[in-house]
Amino acid sequence: MNTQEADVWGEAVRLHDRRVYLSVLALGLAPDRAREVAQMTWTRLMEQHAKGALKELDFPGLAIRQARFLALNSHQRERVEMRVLAAVPEASPQPDVDHVVASRQELDRVLSALATCSPTAKKIFQLVYATPDGSATKAAHEVGLSLQRVRQILCETRNHIRRAMEVVP
To answer: How many whole angstroms separate alpha carbon 150 and alpha carbon 127?
Structure first.
């Protein structure tokens, strides 16, 4: 761009930039974003003029139309991005390392407590809590004990595990 063209563009920006900025601001853009769009408008017009793509320079109309186009195009792109982001599920937050360690320690204490129970208590506990659709009735039938005795063993086993959980190593 030669000095004469630079002077013409400088004068055009000085005279019409405020109207271009206000036209974009009227579309609801934030002031900072409106300023960016106005600057992009002048840059784009200068580039198009340098390439010979503009037949005439009709200010401020040309600049206002270009700014509105850029602003609306930007707004449309943001809406599409928001729809895409809304459709993508958020990644679940990673569990806290301390929480994972504490959970594993609790599980170890439960398993250790369960390991000290009788084989019958372990079998009943497994049938009720580790089997899909497990119940005390099904466990009683499986191990050949009365329903009352199975319930009593479950109660004793749960109490044993609770006591083991209360003891902090």
So the answer is: 11
Cα distance between the two ends of the chain: 79
Residue burial 36-56, b: 16+ Cβ < 10 Å; e: rest = bbbebbbeebbeebeeeeeee
Contact 161, 114 (CB under 8 A): yes
Structure-block tokens of residue 126 = 């497994």
Around Cβ 98, how many Cβ atoms within 10 Å? 8
Model confidence pTM above 0.70: no
In a structure prediction context, what are the per-residue pLDDT tens digits for the chain, which is 169 residues long?
A: 678 777 888 888 999 999 999 999 898 888 999 999 999 999 999 999 888 888 888 888 899 999 999 998 888 888 888 888 777 777 667 777 888 888 888 888 888 888 999 999 999 998 998 888 889 999 999 999 999 999 999 999 999 988 888 866 5
Backbone angles phi, psi at 106, to 5 degrees: -65, -45
